[in-house]
Write a structure and sequence with these properties.
Chain A is an all-alpha fold. Chain A has helices at residues 5-35, 42-52, 57-79, 88-126, 129-135, 140-177, 183-193, 196-222, 227-258. In chain B, the strands form 2 sheets. A 6-stranded mixed sheet of chain B has the order 6-7-8-3-9-10, sandwiched between helices. A 4-stranded antiparallel sheet of chain B has the order 2-1-4-5, covered by helices on one side. The chains are: A mainly alpha (260), B alpha/beta (248).
Amino acid sequence: MHPLAPVTAVGRSTLSMLAAIGRVTIFLGATLTHLVRPPFYPREFLSALLSIGWFSLPVVGLTTLFTGGALALQIYAGGARFNAEAVVPQIVAIGMVRELGPVLTGLMVAGRVAASIAAEVGTMKVTEQIDALVTLSTNPMKYLTVPRVLAATLALPLLAAVGNVIGILGGYLVGTTRLDFNAAVYLTNTVDFLEAADVVSGLVKAAVFGFIVALMGCYHGMNSGRGAQGVGRATTNAVVSSSILILASNYLLTEVFFSA
Amino acid sequence: MIAMQDVHKAFGPKKVLRGVTLDVARGESLVIIGGSGTGKSVTIKCILGLVTPDTGLITLDGQDVRRAERDAFLARFGMLFQGGALFDSLSVWQNVAFRLLRGALKRPRAEAREIAIEKLRRVGLTPDVADLFPAELSGGMQKRVGLARAIAAEPEIIFFDEPTTGLDPIMAGVINDLIREIVVEMGATAITITHDMSSVRAIADKVAMLHDGVIQWTGPVARMDTSGDPFVEQFIHGRAEGPIEAVR
């Protein structure tokens, strides 16, 4: 092996990563440009809204319900170490609304929607349907990407809001049935403790996550390789990249909203 | 009408087109023949702007296609893709009327559906197919729907990419006859890509043989059998030996 081979490998990986960042940035720029320029496709937007928003409700609901319940148990057990068991309703509420609601919704939708968008768009690419769109005077960015990105950006805050309520409900059910909290006190503590900024910050995060999920799904689909293997790789890449970006942007947004 | 002059295109180190020069007159039906992977599809994709040539000039009615207003330019074309390229999420009639439901050629929905059904009838499909989805159709029916979509907006120029690939000989004959009838009836200019010699004889006015990224021979279909060109001879007779390497 050449003594500089490891350096070459690191250099190659760095260049490849920078090229990928450049391609995603160009794709992002094109998406933003097409978002504000007609023609618009309302039917495709509504169809994407239904598919991304409505059909993700069960998975988001179940995930947040169990997470809310587990969170209540954990906070109760942890809080018992310094006699703070009573803060379960408040911490469940703030944990769900600020962090777990939007992040879990983002990650679950990344698994369901980014994969589905990448597979659909990737299949369209390998079967020449995207070329067909162009020959039919239809811009694929406007017809495929913009409606999905817009729909996901609007649907995720709504899903996260529903997830927050169900997650808090999960904590409430565990708190009142397993941990002997008084139902009325639990609800009062939850409602009194939450501030508008907690809710708004969570919903803004969810909107950003929705944008990321659809953008990554479309990007990897549009850049899918040939054949079943190419589409499979695009699907995997869409889920992995959107999940990582969701977690990274969650940290950055938390810094912006709550630092200092 | 369509002219390509010294068009080159490479994908990475692979040079696909090495100087394609070709002329297609208005109303003419040109068939490009050649082996798999010789750049036939890339040639028509270059004309449509789906692939950007590295060098060379492509003109439509004397105007450089790169300078043409994109929507007006594409509105003059219809294309039948090799696999049909029908949109899975849309019903058959919505596929056929795609261009009539949006953009500059937009019509009321009921009128677009009527036109789609008329075009489906023209390609030998009954109106009850209109509300099915592409996945519910056989390969031959999908090709016909693709053909109906290609002609729905009555384009001046139609491209056919391997129109009979994957079809049985009878269905291939039906599609060939349909293409010929429709092109004559509409007075359209047509470019067809194929390696099916029955398609060539049924569809072509003029034949161009593409090999190794250049047009090796071009001439009227009537002269194809007596062209004397070794590439054409080997190709039309399907011989393993000759200037075209069997393993590419």
